[in-house]
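Expect sequence, tokenised fold; for instance:
***
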Amino acid sequence: MRAPDPVAAPAPAADEIETSLYEVRKKIYARAVSGIFARWRIALVIITQLVFYCSPWLTWNDRQAVLFDLVSRKFYIFGLVFWPQDFIFLTALLIISAYSLFLFTAVAGRLWCGYACPQTVYTEMFMWIERRIEGDRVQRMRLDQSDFGARKFGLKLLKHGVWIAVALWTGFTFVGYFTPIKTLAASFSPWALGPWETFWIFFYGFATYGNAGWMREQVCKYMCPYARFQSVMFDPDTLVITYDAKRGDPRGARGRKADPKAMGLGDCVDCNICVQVCPTGIDIRKGLQYECIGCAACIDGCDQVMDKMGYARGLIRYSTENAVKGKYADTEIKRHVVRPRVLIYTGLLVLIVIAFFSGLLLRSPLKVDVIRDRGAMVRDGGGGLIENVYRLQFINTDEAPRRYNVTVSGLNGMQLVVRQPIEVPPATTQTFPVSVKLDPTGLEAGSHAIVFHIVDIDRANVRADEKSRFFVR
């Protein structure tokens, strides 16, 4: 039998356009730039990384100054020791971070993204390494377009080797916040690391290498949710990076001595420097775009061109939507910063910060939990007395040993049986058995409220009062 003829695909109509659902990435060769905003970025890269890389090596009270000991469930931050019961402070810290982000965004856009976000910081570091090894924008483009040879292989190998070294050191430092870093370093040389330490060093190192070395702007454009909902926090008086189209258009190339007005041109010389220095590869002259991370590299690049041409700076600048539309002059921008949204964010942030630090200052170094003995509700205490047994769990959050006295109140004639004073080592949790005896004569059967009073012998202002129940049969 003869096979059927294949059905020919219909020819596309003349007005049909084939569109891919996935945009192929075009590699961005960001050009180096200098200026006031570039100096701010460099300063924040240095500050944040000094804090990150150096903090685990600091010592406080013969221990690591900053250590999140998950095994012992204790978080050390210089002179403070936090326990799982102090989770409220972590909650307050997260709320402070969120409101700070809202406030900064409402005032001046994506300041966090442009200057302090880890993705931005490590991308800046990796790009600096790349420029030092392969050269600036044009040199890197020529290197990538050249035939593969010994020079190209050597430069690429050196660059990726340095990237991997920085990434692994970053992963090692990250793990050093959870495992004492000196112990980690001692285990690193003979490779006696545990499986979890090994996993997280390589995982965090791989994430740093991949995000900062390869993905870069793709993380900001497609993976970071902040880029998507940032516009909700913008309003017409938010400072954003803008191109002054009234001043810059029409664009066109010209010599330095040429008169742009006589040529019918604006101040923009159409040099594309603003595009070349952008780490996400956008053209700010097309207006505000969600890909813009607010790094202000385009401002520095444009100002350099304006200086060379002898024009006034500010063709690309921080401005507001209302100022660009001419609703008020640029000199009035600062006056419009103080507005209801900013005042609400600031007020809430100040209140939460005050509450946070007040809680830290007033936090008692003593925490006590009263746990009843589940084995027997009531038992014979001898001599006609009945006895209830408890366990007092002491948490000494101070980094010095403490001594406590315990008393009990609530019912007449109660006898407390416990070894006094109770001594608790520094920054530890210990449980002590306690029994309360009582003559039940005249008492109704059932439970009765009692209170344990715990007082620090050396500091009378440190005390705890914990309620419990005494059972009579």
